Design the sequence.
């Protein structure tokens, strides 16, 4: 059984996928991303799944995608921002090397962009993001073995900080 070298968690706009790609490149390993896994498995975008089937259905698919990736993948794993809200997923993360990429509202909003197509942000990017950051901050910190601040930092600098934190 493989295990990811590092699991990246944090909200939308934290840079999980971008930083994960840099880390994976540097180590010569693959990046796996649970949003992409769900989309590939379903043949639909995350947005389509939310609209067609609702958020609970997406969360069930996400839970299975995370479980599979944690058991199979030995590179870098980026989790969808809401994955850690699931108690079974939090239990599965115990014992893994989990890095929380922390981001404040201003940087998160500017990274996702005002025209974000993420279903949870539709119509009110800043307002929804603020709510999500407030609700989840303690949960991300609770599953993390290390926390890396990303505000004001570009992806290469964040990737270096992650390597230094391991
Ligand atoms: C979500 C984050 C998204 C995606 C979905 C829900 C969330 O992933 O899974 O839109 O609940 O925070 P990213 O964090 O990769 O954008």
Sequence:
């Amino acid at each position: 059984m493989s295990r990811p070298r590092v699991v990246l968690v944090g909200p939308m706009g934290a840079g999980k996928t971008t930083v994960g790609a840099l880390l994976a490149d540097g180590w010569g390993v693959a990046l796996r991303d649970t949003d992409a896994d769900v989309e590939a498995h379903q043949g639909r975008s995350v947005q389509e799944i939310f609209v067609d089937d609702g958020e609970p259905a997406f969360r069930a698919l996400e839970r299975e995608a995370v479980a599979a990736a944690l058991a199979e993948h030995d590179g870098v794993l980026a989790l969808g921002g809401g994955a850690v809200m699931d108690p079974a997923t939090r239990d599965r993360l115990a014992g893994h090397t989990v890095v929380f990429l922390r981001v404040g509202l201003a940087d998160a909003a500017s990274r996702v962009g005002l025209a974000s197509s993420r279903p949870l942000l539709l119509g009110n990017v800043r307002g929804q993001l603020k709510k999500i950051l407030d609700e989840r901050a303690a949960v991300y910190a609770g599953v993390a073995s290390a926390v890396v601040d990303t505000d004001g930092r570009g992806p290469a600098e964040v990737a270096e900080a992650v390597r230094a934190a391991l």
Observations:
- The chain has a mean pLDDT of 94.
- Helices lie at 16-27, 34-42, 46-53, 55-72, 87-93, 105-112, 125-143, 155-165.
- The chain is about 55% helix and 10% strand.
